[in-house]
Specification:
With 238 residues, the protein is an alpha+beta fold. The chain has two domains: 127 residues, CofE-like (60s Ribosomal Protein L30, Chain: A, 2-Layer Sandwich), CATH 3.30.1330; 86 residues, no CATH class. It has nine helices and nine strands. Strands 1-2-9-3-7-8 form a six-stranded mixed beta sheet, with helices on both faces. It has a three-stranded antiparallel beta sheet with strand order 4-6-5, with helices on both faces. Helix 4 packs across helix 5.
Length: 238
């Protein structure tokens, strides 16, 4: 059983007082791992009925083999050109990641989105590129900041995060969610088991208790220690 690194009271004004986040350390996740079995062992004695086990999307994707080393990608001139114009913190600021977006979405769609972005900025509107590209960008996570040996790996989205969360819930008897959180104050729930309030989970993880470096805590157990109804779960949640 893995030990919780620390217990953190969630003190955000937009979530009910009494929520606690417990990051749980695991061994390094590898392609082909039985991730559900690994999680079950890691949270044994920590997660209980009424809790929600949140799993990093990168951990799920890596176990599924959904990543590629950046060295395997040969960026085109278009990828280099567009990546230089992206914000420094954007996934597509890396030419290899941009090339994968081009491969998935097609050159025509990328050029169209680029023109829409240019025209939008002239009118004082931003974000057209990301709106048009949508899932083609959301499905790719850049390699900056990922711990070894994945520091040069471009990680894709998990295949079916909702199905994974439901299977995990059924295996461990505790509600579960697959999440995408970072240190930039953003968190998104990609998939969740029956009865989970995904909106509350996303707000609770905005401070990213998973960590974004070498913490090796891809799991966070959320607990309700306040009074009244558990805000993490619907009335009929597990």
């Amino acid at each position: 059983m893995s030990l919780a690194a620390r217990s953190l009271a969630v003190t955000r004004p937009d979530v009910p007082a009494g929520l606690v986040a417990i990051p749980v350390r695991t061994r390094l996740i590898r392609p082909g791992d039985d991730l559900i079995g690994l999680i079950a062992d890691a949270v044994r004695g920590i997660a209980r009925h009424g809790d929600v086990v949140t799993v990093s999307e990168s951990a799920v994707a890596i176990a599924e083999g959904e990543f590629v080393p950046a060295e395997y990608v040969r960026p085109s001139r278009l990828a280099y050109l567009l990546s230089r114009r992206a914000g420094p913190l954007a996934t597509i600021s890396q030419p290899e990641s941009m090339q994968l977006v081009i491969d998935r979405a097609g050159t025509g769609r990328v050029i169209y989105a680029t023109l829409a972005q240019f025209l939008g900025r002239m009118r004082g509107r931003r974000g057209a590129f990301y709106e048009i590209m949508g899932d083609a960008i959301a499905a790719i996570d850049g390699y900056t900041g990922t711990m070894p040996p994945y520091e040069r790996a471009i990680v894709f989205a998990p295949r079916d995060p909702a199905a994974f969360a439901q299977l995990l819930c059924e295996r461990i008897g505790v509600a579960a969610a697959v999440v995408d959180a970072n240190d930039l104050g953003a968190a998104k729930v990609l998939g969740w088991s029956d009865g989970v309030r995904s909106d509350v989970i996303a707000q609770t993880l905005l401070d990213n208790p998973h960590g974004n470096g070498d913490e090796q805590t891809p799991l966070v157990v959320l607990k309700w220690r306040g009074e009244g109804r558990n805000p993490l779960l619907e009335e009929d949640g597990p």
